[in-house]
């Protein structure tokens, strides 16, 4: 670990995203509506440049920058790669929905700002920066959820905002309590101070801060917004809020707990394990009899977060914990985006029954649906299969064998509701030629779906090469 510094070049991927958003606002102010594609191209260029910059910075030693408040290490690098790749994929699958809209520019700008906040959330090594990143990863997405400005979207945005505002204030209170107990907001110094601080104060502060992170990832008990927001907003926006913030939130929780909170003062491994169990179980049970495809995916994301939290629960207790978490969020991101890309490609097919005859009408899209839904179950050779296997192994190594058993049971149970979606697509009769349910939105959503499904399979096949990239220590630990 190199010394603390103020190396601006270390933040090049983040700065490129910020530059893309700022320039997008300026360009969108005077470009005519039919040329808003320029802003989309700028956003895609900033994202690709950020991926290239990340590839370069990954070759450098881990470091703490800006007074130690931001860690540029393995977890941050992976967060950058996954968030930027997910952002690029979302830009593609959103085209058919937002092209020509009078607020097209705002959509791309809000997406970039939300992605930027997510990356900063993952690298934050100080409570104050953590909260600033929480706001940056939240406020743009509140507006993005209500971007369509119809009744459903406005209602979804209000629910998202009110939940986020309440839990954001709770997080701020928790930061104040931890600062009062530890006398610092920097993670390493906070850990040393909390070792001799009152356990009750440390516990209250930690639970309050975790409340905000649980909101970002959509885990129990901060999950109430997920189904209504996911079902009430257009598919591309739903894909964003159920995928991108989870990446930063999970890594931020892992870093906070491992670096800043000693487990002998607050038994956070057990707390996270219980939350993981509750999330995967409640998400699965609630998804069983859903008929809305977006609502089913909403509850699916809650259960998927439960599996990811297993790796957080064994942070520092299992060697596989960090690589398992990083690989899982990458595999989940592309697989979940692939499922939402299918929904975006068929915007009128809002219920499971609307997918009858999909395999005969659009066999390629049906194949993507199978890959992504079976991938979310954890079927080989998809990336989520390897991610789940690694997470379960880490949980056993970390002393939570009971949690791994429960996760296996939940995985088996999830087969039921995913098959309820797949079955009509292959067994149902071919719909009438004039039926609007299976009318595709356009080529962009279809390309996004194919790309995501391919990435999910590739991650599973090359997992032996990818998993070692997630090894390493966190900044400040």
Structural features, described:
It is a single chain. The chain is mostly helical and 477 residues long. It has one domain (2-470). The chain has helices at residues 12-28, 37-57, 74-98, 104-123, 127-136, 139-145, 151-182, 187-194, 199-217, 225-232, 235-241, 244-260, 268-287, 293-313, 321-345, 358-361, 363-377, 383-397, 401-427, 443-461, 463-466; strands at 2-5, 63-65, 70-72. A 3-stranded mixed beta sheet has the order 1-2-3. Helix 4 runs antiparallel to helix 6, helix 18 runs antiparallel to helix 19 and helix 18 crosses helix 20. The radius of gyration is 21 Å and the shape is globular. The chain starts with a strand and ends in an 11-residue tail after the last helix. The mean pLDDT is 93.
What is the N-to-C succession of helices and strands?
A: EHHEEHHHHHHHHHHHHHHHHHHH
* Coarse morphology: globular
Helical percentage: over 70%
Arithmetic mean of pLDDT:
93
Unreliable runs: none
Percent strand: under 5%
For the record, the count of structural domains works out to 1
């Amino acid at each position: 670990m190199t010394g603390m510094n103020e190396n601006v070049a270390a933040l090049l991927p983040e700065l490129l995203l910020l530059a893309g958003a700022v320039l997008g606002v300026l360009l969108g102010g005077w470009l005519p509506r039919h040329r808003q594609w320029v802003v989309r191209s700028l956003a895609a260029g900033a994202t690709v440049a950020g991926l290239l910059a990340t590839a370069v910075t990954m070759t450098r030693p881990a470091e703490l920058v800006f007074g130690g408040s931001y860690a540029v290490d393995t977890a941050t690098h992976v967060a950058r790669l996954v968030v930027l790749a997910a952002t690029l994929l979302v830009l593609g699958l959103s085209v058919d929905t937002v092209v020509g809209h009078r607020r097209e520019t705002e959509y791309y700008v809000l997406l970039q700002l939300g992605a930027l906040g997510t990356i900063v959330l993952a690298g934050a090594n100080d409570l104050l920066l953590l909260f600033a990143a929480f706001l940056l990863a939240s406020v743009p997405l509140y507006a993005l959820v209500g971007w369509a400005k119809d009744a459903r979207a406005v209602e979804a945005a209000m629910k998202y905002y009110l939940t986020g505002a309440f839990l954001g204030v709770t997080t701020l209170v928790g930061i104040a309590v931890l600062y009062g107990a530890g006398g610092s907001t920097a993670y390493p110094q906070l850990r040393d101070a909390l070792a001799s601080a009152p356990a009750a104060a440390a516990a209250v502060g930690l639970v309050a801060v975790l409340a905000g992170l649980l909101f970002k990832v959509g885990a129990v008990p901060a999950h109430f917004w997920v189904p209504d927001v996911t079902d009430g907003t257009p598919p591309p926006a739903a894909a964003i809020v159920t995928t991108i913030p989870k990446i930063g939130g999970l890594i931020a929780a892992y870093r906070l707990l491992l670096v800043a909170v000693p487990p002998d003062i607050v038994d956070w491994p057990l707390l996270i394990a219980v939350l993981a169990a509750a999330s995967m179980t409640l998400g699965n049970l609630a998804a069983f009899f859903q008929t809305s495809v977006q609502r089913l995916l909403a509850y699916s994301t809650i259960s998927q977060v439960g599996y990811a939290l297993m790796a957080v629960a064994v942070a520092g207790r299992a060697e596989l914990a960090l690589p398992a978490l990083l690989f899982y969020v990458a595999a989940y991101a592309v697989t979940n985006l692939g499922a939402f890309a299918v929904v975006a490609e068929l915007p009128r097919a809002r219920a499971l029954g609307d997918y009858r005859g999909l395999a005969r009408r659009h066999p390629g899209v049906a194949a993507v649906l199978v890959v992504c839904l079976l991938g979310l179950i954890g079927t080989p050779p998809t990336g989520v299969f390897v991610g789940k296997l690694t997470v379960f192994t880490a949980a056993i190594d970390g002393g939570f064998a009971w949690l791994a058993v429960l996760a296996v049971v939940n995985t088996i149970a999830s087969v039921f509701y995913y098959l309820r979606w797949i079955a009509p697509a292959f067994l149902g009769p071919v719909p009438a030629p004039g039926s609007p349910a299976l009318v595709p939105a356009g080529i962009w959503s279809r390309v996004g779906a194919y790309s995501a499904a391919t990435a999910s399979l590739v991650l599973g096949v090359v997992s032996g090469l990818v998993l070692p990239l997630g090894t390493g220590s966190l900044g400040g630990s």
